[in-house]
């Protein structure tokens, strides 16, 4: 079910009504769990089986890892969890990609082989819930965590509907203990959650879908060499679209959970004001980057094994991070570019000392944002050729056709300019802090404008971009 | 966040929304459902339960406008299912019904030559539009169905929800309003504004709106038609490709009709009226003896061309392509009666 659909709003109202009815806490949790399964099954009922298998396997493995003392058996339980979870991911998400590359490899060495095109449906949000549930068993293996007290608490941790299909990716200690005692949002929390839901939907529906998506679609779907201005407009529009789309989803998820009295971690902190790429990854999709840091980069050795291994570890982590997003080489290149940026930054930091102030800070943030845009080209382009064409036009190496209207050019440059300025101004603060300093009537007007625009925006309910990952 | 912030925000939203709704009602906009993929899928799904005597209407916008369901039902005793869709090549729907359904009743298939004889491939606008509707029917989720169901009461209440979900044809959403209100020097070729000139009900029965009573409004629509048919000669395919396409479409239709007839179904072809620039182009580029007549002859089906019947050619479409609703009602009564008389229904 999509947050930006009337069906979801009705679903949420019913869930809230049941949740705040005078029933036992355990029954409320059961209602939340059933609602979460319903939320997922409304998209494709049979694929709920995958969620159940992941839940049962990781619940069992987690308990065994906690009680088992034989290290060899503990390893076996860990491997079982990883194989099941990554196996689902490999089959459903990377099956076609692996087969395609295997075929290409055989053809390259002269073996005639043509595989039937696989018809595999990608289960929505599989990358998110797989990583979330894997973190539980890995933490249990390293004895960093205790098992959930009940199966219900664990199942709810895996399936909690606000963040099930597109994060934030939550760790067990952040969420499971919140299910132990009865939870009820305070009035202030409930209203703030409602505000965040409005803000998230506004980001998705108005900013991403109404204002920016058309420019990005026109540029990346043109199928021809573009005029430089159009290539830049398309890329900048996509940088805004993907931010508003994904940050919008996370904001909705955090808001909905808060309306239930559950606190989810932040996933975005004004990433386009990042100074450098390590700063960017502390601000963009925070829960994924911290997951990759804790479960991939650090186990690979992190920065503890000398500069060369550090660079290799950074590159590997980002390449796999790229592949996490999608089964295509363009995503790998996207991850590889980020890995390269991180390596360059690390090298520069070792040799140059620079004191950051407001003046050089905004220049460096702008430079960072510009470099990020080059990576978005690979993220958005359907294939490598399209990406290279767009980049060629962005670097004024070629000039082609105009495909973006005057209005869309104005909208894109205005929205993206404002986005960058707002991110810079908000760099060290939060929406919550700003709202507390804003006169109450002004906050009401801003809220009303967002609600009004959401209600009159007759978009066909576009899916969130990150649902495909 | 305190209560007064929330209440003021909700109050302001309510007040502005009421003004928004009243404004569009004062402009004459009707309370009507969106003609979107969800409504189309609902009707596509309904044909699975129909019998041999039932009728499904396929075609482009001319069938949508010209066939009125109440009148058709009053003559035949059967309410047809309207699966015609504006701006589509209906061969996609015919193929889908023949290959992906068990329906074996009657199909009335409207032929708008420039659309029906456009190549049936996904890189072609008219076919792609049709195929997307059908794809949605086959892939729609329970969440889609649920949202469509709960939206109905709202669409029965608010006029501002009557617009089409398509970006080029949607007057009441912020995006289109921006495009229509802010006029900037053209940087890329654009189309003239495409005004809404119809509304429909939950059975997808259409009523023409404004274009039938306001000549200036009808002119806005004909400006769109002029732009649509203004194809530079160099963009047209060579004659041998056009001929190959004609033969291919006829052969594909014959194959589909035969397959449909083998399981007891029957297809009836209809060519609805057009006038002025449309009729001129259609007559020259798609001469009936080579196109419509060949379809009827090679399939051995019933065919009704508006030029053959006085009760079909006595009308003047206000915007060259579709009948106004009173005319469409009479047109439907007459055509349905003729079909009954001929034993086609």
UniProtKB/TrEMBL annotation, chain A:
GO BP, one annotated term: alginic acid biosynthetic process
Membrane topology: Multi-pass membrane protein
Transmembrane segments: 6-25, 37-57, 77-99, 150-170, 190-212, 242-264, 323-344, 356-379, 409-426, 438-457
GO cellular component terms given for this protein: plasma membrane
Nucleotide-binding as UniProt keyword: no
Localization: Cell membrane
Gene Ontology MF term list: acyltransferase activity
Chief site of localization: membrane
Entry-linked InterPro entries: Ac/AlaTfrase_AlgI/DltB (IPR024194), AlgI (IPR028362), MB_O-acyltransferase (IPR051085), MBOAT_fam (IPR004299)
Coiled coil regions in record: none
Keyword vocabulary terms for this entry: Acyltransferase, Cell membrane, Membrane, Transferase, Transmembrane, Transmembrane helix
Domain of life: Bacteria
Alphabetical list of Pfam families matching this protein: MBOAT (PF03062)
Family: Belongs to the membrane-bound acyltransferase family.
Identification of the protein by name: MBOAT family protein
Species lineage: Bacteria, Pseudomonadati, Bacteroidota, Flavobacteriia, Flavobacteriales
Automatic annotation (TrEMBL), chain B:
Stated name of the protein: Uncharacterized protein
Organism of this sequence: Lentiprolixibacter aurantiacus
